[in-house]
Amino acid sequence: MPRTREELEDLERQNLAPYAQLSAESRGRKYAEPPPEWRTQYQRDRDRVIHSRAFRRLEYKTQVFLNGTGDHLRTRLTHTMEVAAISRQPLDEGPRRL
């Protein structure tokens, strides 16, 4: 069952370190908009970035050249998504303070 924004914000308070920036404590938006029902403000921001045209253009930019046969090329989009997945892994393993 999906969680409401309020439930997700409570989970942030319980599981994140005391110095973490909580989405419930955001300074707001430049242009006022109603808060989302089923995700936090930060989740909405992340979704906007991922679905943005500028982010998708990273697909055509080469990030890493490795010596050798050249079959291990990474685009900036691939590299960005891999780094994001790795950085989220400790948070997905359960509540602990980093």
Structural features, described:
This protein has 98 residues and is mainly α. It contains four helices and two strands. It has helices at 5-15, 41-50, 53-56, 76-92, and strands spanning 62-64, 74-75. It has a two-stranded antiparallel ribbon with strand order 1-2. It is globular and about 45 Å long. The model has no long low-confidence stretch (mean pLDDT 79).
Keywords:
98 residues, 2 strands, mainly alpha, globular, two-stranded antiparallel ribbon, 4 helices
What percent of residues are in strands?
5-15%
> How would you classify the helix and strand content by structural class?
mainly alpha
Total of DSSP H or I helical runs spanning 4+ residues = 4
* Residue share in helix: 40-55%
Encode the helix/strand succession as letters.
HHHEEH
Radius of gyration: 17 Å
Please summarize the sheet with the most strands.
2 strands, antiparallel
Task: Please tell me the overall pLDDT.
Answer: 79
Per DSSP E runs of 2 or more residues, the count of β-strands stands at 2
Shape: globular
Stretches where pLDDT falls below 50 for ≥5 residues?
A: none
- The CA-CA distance between the termini, in Å, is 28 Å
Strand order of the largest sheet: 1-2
